[in-house]
Design brief:
Helices cover 40% and strands 24% of the residues. The strands form 7 sheets. A 7-stranded mixed β-sheet has the order 3-9-10-16-13-12-11. It has a 5-stranded mixed β-sheet with strand order 20-19-21-22-23, sandwiched between helices. The radius of gyration is 26 Å and the shape is globular. It folds into 3 domains: 218 residues, BirA Bifunctional Protein, domain 2, CATH 3.30.930; 110 residues, Herpes Virus-1, CATH 3.30.40; 113 residues, Anticodon-binding domain (Rossmann fold), CATH 3.40.50.800.
């Protein structure tokens, strides 16, 4: 665990040093759990948005995108349940004065038991070598079975207490499991309390309840209240989807772990409207579709796992998370939920407007069911950054820090480097950039030795570096260096655009999604 924390510290330090992520308002000592994306971070973030948007909207004829306002009529949040039910169960340690989410403390305890199981499996692998049957070992090993039973028992109690809003029962579970405060190491806990996470403000010049509005805690409601507008104006036929990327705000009391949990963050959400009774078919479809989307990035299948929800939200009849192995361990990256017809029916009730769909094939009207996919853009950013960050030992004994970002997501696609600052090489390098910059974000660098410049490009994740030397002026060829393999090849300038397009284009990612 210590090594993982060190890895997170390294990623945070690297992100700041190279212009990916800065603490917000840093000259005023910052603001807790608020971050700014720097010059390279904003490029990586925009590339992630583009990959998601193109995969959702461009690749699906029956999905369209919108951009709804952050401020919404306050009754929206009454209808959605956020005013009454958008709470976190919080608990304080009396000795450290630190506050925690009670459910997260229990989940972290479960994860420790799960890690014990993985250690048992690793021991088995070492002991039996190639003859090791992992499935049989997990099904028969007494320690593994004991751990699984412990996890099941804890999850059952946790589900029951949370669903019944039994806050004393939640506290008792923490006491029974002998969970200690990570800071003080003591078990001196307060009672568990509920805390609403919505930020509120006033609209207009008069303060008071009449003008109280909220910063949206999710982007989904902007889709639901526009469902009929989109359906009618776009002549959409069920099944169809509405996608949106936008900011959301939550007054997280326990905001930590860098950009994993922030008070101002961005979501990429798609609500897919289906016939009642067909929602589970589409739920499974979107689980597989989203698995492929993540897999195409090439960060490694072992980095992901599906986790079915212990406690279903009040609106869901099925829900799971795609979890990612962050430096802090496996945590939620994306949620896939079958939301039933809860949202549209609630908005029908509170607005007095009909939000039904007339299905010409069935010759009947109904309120559609909804399957949602919702991924945190900032978490996506952290998953890609942390998985790409590597400290490599090279054959010659030296080390290099390299960001092995998926090439289509990299901020700069190519760096053009004149070998020296004279003899017309800088002018030739600028000429090359002028030809490439319509299609690729390029960086020009002439400072320091060529080796140091390669290392700088490795550190910011640039997939290719092009070196312009005296031979370039003679035969119009350049040296292209691959970031990941560090191999170099001599190619004609006539072939450079084609090579970059083939290796760094977003199309290469999208084609894997078929």
């Amino acid at each position: 665990m210590e090594q993982r924390e060190d890895n997170l510290k390294d990623v945070i330090s690297h992100a700041k040093e190279y212009g990916f992520v800065f603490p917000s308002s840093e000259i005023y000592d910052g603001l807790a759990a608020i971050y700014d994306y720097g010059q390279l971070g904003s490029e990586l973030k925009n590339n992630l948005k583009t990959y998601w948007w193109k995969s959702m909207v461009q690749m699906h004829e029956n999905i369209v995108g919108i951009d709804s306002a952050i401020f919404m009529h306050p009754t929206t949040w009454k209808a959605s349940g956020h005013v009454d039910a958008f709470n976190d169960p919080l608990i304080d340690n009396k000795d450290s004065k630190k506050r925690y989410r009670a459910d997260v403390l229990i989940e972290e305890h479960i994860e420790k038991i799960r890690q014990k199981t993985e250690k048992e499996v690793e021991k088995g692998k070492k002991k039996f070598g190639e003859s090791f049957d992992e499935a049989q070992f997990r099904a028969t090993n007494p320690n593994v079975l004991r751990n699984e039973e412990k996890i099941r028992s804890i999850e059952d109690r946790m589900r029951e207490t949370l669903e019944n809003n039994d806050l004393e029962g939640v506290r008792q579970l923490i006491v029974d499991l002998e969970i200690v405060c990570p800071v003080s190491g003591s078990k001196n806990w307060t009672e568990v309390r509920q805390f609403n996470l919505m930020f509120s403000t006033e609209l207009g010049s008069v303060a008071g309840d009449a003008s109280k509005i909220y910063l949206r805690p999710e982007t989904a409601q902007g889709i639901f209240v526009n469902y009929l507008n989109v359906q009618k104006s776009g002549r959409m036929k069920i099944p169809f989807g509405i996608a949106q990327i936008g900011k959301a705000f939550r007054n997280e009391i326990v905001a930590r772990q860098f950009i994993f949990r922030m008070r101002e963050f961005e979501q990429m959400e798609m609500q897919f409207f289906v016939r009642p009774g067909e929602e589970m078919k589409w739920y499974e479809y979107w689980k597989e579709t989203r698995r492929k989307w993540h897999g195409a990035l090439g960060l490694g299948a072992s980095k992901y796992r599906f986790h079915d929800h212990i406690k279903l939200a009040h609106y869901a009849n099925a829900a799971c998370d795609i979890e990612f192995d962050f430096p802090m361990g496996f945590k939620e990256l994306e949620g896939i939920h079958s939301r039933t017809d809860f949202d549209l029916k609630q908005h029908e009730q509170y607005s007095g407007k009909k939000l039904q769909y007339f299905d010409p094939e069935l010759n009947e009207s109904y309120v559609p069911y909804v399957v949602e996919t919702s991924v945190g853009l900032d978490r996506m950013f952290l998953s890609v950054l942390s998985a790409s960050y590597q400290n490599e030992k090279l054959e010659d004994g030296t080390e290099r820090v390299v960001l092995k970002l998926p090439a289509p997501l990299a901020p700069y696609k190519v760096a053009v480097l004149p070998l020296t600052k004279k003899d017309g090489l800088p002018e030739k390098a600028r000429e090359i950039i002028d030809g490439l910059k319509f299609d690729f974000l390029c960086q020009y660098d002439e400072k320091d030795s060529i080796g140091k410049r390669y290392r700088r490009q490795d550190a910011i994740g640039t997939p290719f570096s092009v070196t312009v030397d005296h031979q370039t002026l003679e035969d119009n060829t350049v040296t292209v260096r691959d970031r990941d393999t560090m191999e170099q090849e001599r190619i004609s300038l006539d072939d450079l655009h084609t090579l970059l397009a083939r290796r760094t284009s977003m199309t290469t990612l999208l084609k894997q999604l078929k």
